[in-house]
Design brief:
Length: about 110
Amino acid sequence: DCSPPVPVELYQPRKKEMELSDAVDAETSEILLEQAAGHVSAEFIYLYPPGIPIIAPGELLTEQVISQIQDCQRRGLQVQGMRDQEGRMVQVADDLHALQICGKSLY
């Protein structure tokens, strides 16, 4: 089996909506990956190998990155890091009262 290489776009910088530490410490919700566009990730999602994050906590989940993750899943690549081992659900930050977006308090 000679699968096509992973697209370079998979490892492009993502829009940072909040500090990684704030996203990890925030209250979270688990939602369907396909419905996560516009939410801030609270977990790492990466391919293994090589283990480079596709998205990190604090980064914005967009339609494009979700499509790329789902494409990797369909191709049988090892998408890891998500609490949901089946890769259908993703943890997103939802504690707006405790959040700081790029160092600035929302409240």
